[in-house]
């Protein structure tokens, strides 16, 4: 977290074009990170990226829902449930329930089909 915080705070001193490029690179790198097979799901980092706007909430929801639908592993289910819970319960909320509509829908479908875990 300190590295990310330093990058984010240091970005205030960069030219606007460099800041946009840096945010774009960080967002794309994070999307690549999320799509690797060897994932390490980190809710606090993801929430921070969503709060900062470096990762788009709608795109995150779509990608997460697609991953849940195609590969409902317990680690992914736990991550998705924790991420949605954290984003909706912070004060102020990071996202609304409608911004996680796809993920919530897939989690509900998995729960009804018996493929969900306790989270």
Shape: globular
The number of helical runs is 6
- Please give the share of residues in helix: 55-70%
Number of strands: 0
Strand content: under 5%
Main sheet attributes: strand count, strand direction, barrel closure:
none
Question: Structural class, from helix and strand content?
Answer: mainly alpha
How large, in whole angstroms, is the Cα Rg? 15 Å
Task: Give, in order, the helices and strands.
Answer: HHHHHH
Account of the protein in words:
This protein has 119 residues and is an all-alpha fold. It has one domain (2-112). Helices cover 68% and strands 0% of the residues. The chain contains six helices and no strands. The radius of gyration is 15 Å and the shape is globular. The two termini are 25 Å apart.
Please specify the SSE layout and strand pairing.
Elements: H1 2-10, H2 16-35, H3 43-52, H4 57-70, H5 74-89, H6 101-112
Relevant terms:
6 helices, single chain, mainly alpha, 119 residues
């Amino acid at each position: 977290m300190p590295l990310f915080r330093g990058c984010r705070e240091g970005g205030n001193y960069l030219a606007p074009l460099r800041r946009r490029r840096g945010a774009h690179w960080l967002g794309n790198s994070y999307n690549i990170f999320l799509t690797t097979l060897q994932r390490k799901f980190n809710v606090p980092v993801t929430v921070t990226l969503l709060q900062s706007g470096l990762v788009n909430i709608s795109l995150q929801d779509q990608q997460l829902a697609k991953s849940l639908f195609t590969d409902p592993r317990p680690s992914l289910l736990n991550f998705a449930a924790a991420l949605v819970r954290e984003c909706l319960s912070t004060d102020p909320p990071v996202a609304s329930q409608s911004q996680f509509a796809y993920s919530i829908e897939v989690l509900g479908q998995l729960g009804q089909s018996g493929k969900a875990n306790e989270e």
